Every structure is written in structure tokens, then in C-alpha cells.
């Protein structure tokens, strides 16, 4: 089997390349010009230089592919509408156009955020209506999904969309960036008391679902929610992560306050190129119950949670101890 992977050097993409390699796939990775891809070089068959924002750089990169796994996107929790829409919608449109008629199947890695942030998503199924919230990441993901569906008939085996929950594991923003925020004097508050489900999916579990979505004939034209069955609140998760760096979450913020303040500081900081201390994306993810329904993936893909929370946290702890903590200590050393 031959795969093309965009976003191959990223957190999820690198694990996807590893697992595809272990399953005997040939992998063509799309990497940015000059980008370091040494950490995935042993797993991939070929690296192709290209940029999803430049259609001319994507010519023939998907030729002969059985499956295109499209992961490349802006994954930060802040930015302008343009900064999100250009890579997420525009980039997806460019990749679809470059792959149509050349690859057999197209798998779009979207996000549960496409369902609509700022409201409780517990029990939301793939057939339930999604909505826009004004959060650019949320809205761009939803519009990109619509674009993928429009291209369905231009691939021999159609298109498939997967919506991951909050992805954790070594190198995840929900690990590395959370550790960095906790390390700061201001710390990281619990939104709505941290009482809602963290709605997590471990990266190895997610990648197994992504591959199943790309190889299961019944998955053509379908959307799947991929969320682990872990019973873990944000309070528990953030305290567990904080303990790895010798810190604790600081304070609590009601959801509505976090949402409105996040919107306000976004409007102040983003035009200046500054990272807001709080965003609506963070408030919508950490202050609402986002336990979307995952039964469809289980029934149709045979997918399930394989890595437990305890095992996943042990891997995360090793990563933080050996990589993140030395970095943080080095930054604060005289």
C-alpha cells in the first residue's frame, strides 16, 4: 500500500508515519522546503518538498497513492481568521485539487471542534448538525469538511473525514504547551472548575483509527469521531500534567467569563502579533463537555481505546522528564 501524508513531521503525522511503516506501507511525506524531517526519515520511503499554500508545488505528489492522509493545518489556539482559513480551508482545497484523479482514497483529519465550540457536545453524533461559533479554527475546519465532501466523487474510493478529540501524547500541545503555561508564574487556571470531561484521545489510539478510516471500504463517504473512553476530567488531567513539572493549576474561571474575556484579549493581542493569555478556543475546549459520541467508529471501523490513560500518562511523564522539564529549567537558570 502507498500513502501520501501531509503534515508528516508534526505530532500526529510523525506517529502516523511510524505506524504505517510498521504495517508495511510505502510512505511519501510532504515536507516544507528546508524543513527538518530527520525524525521521520527512517519511516518514510520518500520526502517531497512542497507547501499546501502553493498549488504549483503539489504537482504529481499524490500520483499512484492508495490513500492520502491530509493532516497539515494550523494547530495553534490563537490567530486571525486569515491565519486559520488560509491553511485549513485554502490548503485543503489545494491538496484536494492536486490529489483528485491520482489517489484512490482521501482521508481528512479534521477536529471535533468542527461540531461547534462553546456549547456542550456530549453525545453529539456524526449525523447531528454542526454550527459555527466565530472561533476561526472551529469554523475553518467545518468549511474544510464541506470542501472534502464536494470532492468525494473525484476519488475512486471517495473521501473520509475523521474528527479527533483532544489529542495527547509526547509532543502534543496539550502536554508541551500546558507544561510551559503551568511553569509560568501566572500558571494555568481551571475553567468551570475543571469539572468537565477532558475528552482526550491518545495519539496511538487516534492513528489506529485514522488508518482504519483509510482502509475500510465501508468508511467511504463517512465521518468518524475518535475519542477515547477514558473517564478523565480537566481537573484530573491538568493536575496530573502539573505534577510532572512540580506545579499546580492556579485559580478557577467560570466558562462564560473565560469565553468573553478570551474574545476580548484576542481582539487586542492578535493584531499586534501577540499570543493572548486566554482564547475562546481554550475556553470552548476546557470549559464544556466535549464527549462526542464514538460508537460509530467502534461499530464500523472496529476501533477502540487500546492505550489506557495510565499507560499513556507514563509515556507522557517520560517525555516531560527527559525533554520538557530540562528545557524549562534551562530557561529559568541564571
Question: Can you characterise this structure?
Answer:
The chain is α/β, with parallel strands linked by helices and 334 residues long. The protein has a domain at 2-167 and 201-231 and 290-309: NAD(P)-binding Rossmann-like Domain (Rossmann fold). It has helices at residues 11-22, 81-99, 136-150, 173-183, 203-215, 234-244, 255-269, 280-286, 295-301, 309-332; strands at residues 2-6, 26-31, 46-49, 67-70, 105-109, 159-164, 166-168, 190-191, 200-202, 223-226, 252-253. Strands 3-2-1-4-5-6-10 form a 7-stranded parallel β-sheet, sandwiched between helices. A two-stranded parallel ribbon has the order 7-9. Strand 4 (67-70), helix 2 and strand 5 (105-109) form a beta-alpha-beta unit. It is globular and about 55 Å long. The N and C termini lie far apart (52 Å). The model has no long low-confidence stretch (mean pLDDT 95).
Output the keywords.
single chain, 334 residues, alpha/beta, Rossmann fold, 7-stranded parallel beta sheet, two-stranded parallel ribbon, 10 helices, 40% helix
Blueprint of the fold:
Elements: E1 2-6, H1 11-22, E2 26-31, E3 46-49, E4 67-70, H2 81-99, E5 105-109, H3 136-150, E6 159-164, E7 166-168, H4 173-183, E8 190-191, E9 200-202, H5 203-215, E10 223-226, H6 234-244, E11 252-253, H7 255-269, H8 280-286, H9 295-301, H10 309-332
Parallel strand pairs: 1-2, 1-4, 2-3, 4-5, 5-6, 6-10, 7-9, 8-11
Amino acid at each position: 500500500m502507498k500513502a501520501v501524508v501531509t503534515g508528516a513531521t508534526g505530532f500526529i503525522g510523525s506517529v502516523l508515519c511510524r505506524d504505517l511503516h510498521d504495517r508495511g506501507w510505502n510512505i511519501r511525506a510532504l515536507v516544507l522546503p528546508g524543513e527538518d524531517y530527520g525524525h521521520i526519515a527512517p519511516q518514510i520511503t520518500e520526502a517531497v518538498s512542497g507547501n499546501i499554500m502553493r498549488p504549483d508545488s503539489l504537482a504529481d505528489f499524490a500520483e499512484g497513492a492508495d490513500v492520502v492522509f491530509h493532516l497539515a493545518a494550523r494547530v495553534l489556539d490563537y490567530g486571525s481568521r486569515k491565519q486559520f482559513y488560509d491553511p485549513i480551508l485554502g490548503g485543503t482545497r489545494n491538496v484536494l485539487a492536486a490529489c483528485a484523479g491520482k489517489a484512490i482514497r482521501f482521508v481528512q483529519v479534521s477536529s471535533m471542534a468542527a461540531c461547534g465550540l462553546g456549547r456542550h457536545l456530549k453525545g453529539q453524533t456524526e449525523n447531528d448538525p454542526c454550527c459555527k461559533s466565530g472561533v476561526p479554527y472551529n469554523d475553518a475546519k467545518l468549511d474544510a469538511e464541506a470542501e472534502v465532501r464536494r470532492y468525494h466523487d473525484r476519488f475512486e474510493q471517495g473521501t473520509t473525514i475523521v474528527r479527533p478529540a483532544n489529542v495527547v501524547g509526547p509532543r502534543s500541545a496539550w502536554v508541551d504547551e500546558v507544561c510551559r503555561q503551568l511553569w509560568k508564574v501566572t500558571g494555568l487556571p481551571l475553567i468551570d472548575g475543571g469539572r468537565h470531561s477532558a475528552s482526550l484521545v491518545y495519539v496511538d489510539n487516534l492513528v489506529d483509527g485514522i488508518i482504519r478510516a483509510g482502509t475500510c471500504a465501508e468508511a467511504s463517504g463517512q465521518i468518524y469521531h475518535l475519542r477515547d473512553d477514558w473517564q478523565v476530567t480537566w481537573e484530573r488531567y491538568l493536575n496530573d500534567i502539573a505534577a510532572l513539572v512540580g506545579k499546580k493549576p492556579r485559580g478557577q474561571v467560570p466558562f462564560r467569563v473565560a469565553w468573553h474575556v478570551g474574545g476580548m484579549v484576542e481582539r487586542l493581542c492578535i493584531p499586534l502579533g501577540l499570543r493572548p493569555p486566554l482564547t475562546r478556543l481554550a475556553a470552548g475546549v476546557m470549559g464544556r463537555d466535549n464527549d462526542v459520541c464514538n460508537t460509530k467508529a467502534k461499530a464500523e471501523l472496529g476501533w477502540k481505546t487500546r492505550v489506557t490513560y495510565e499507560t499513556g500518562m507514563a509515556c507522557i511523564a517520560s517525555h516531560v522528564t527527559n525533554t520538557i522539564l530540562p528545557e524549562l529549567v534551562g530557561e529559568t537558570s541564571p
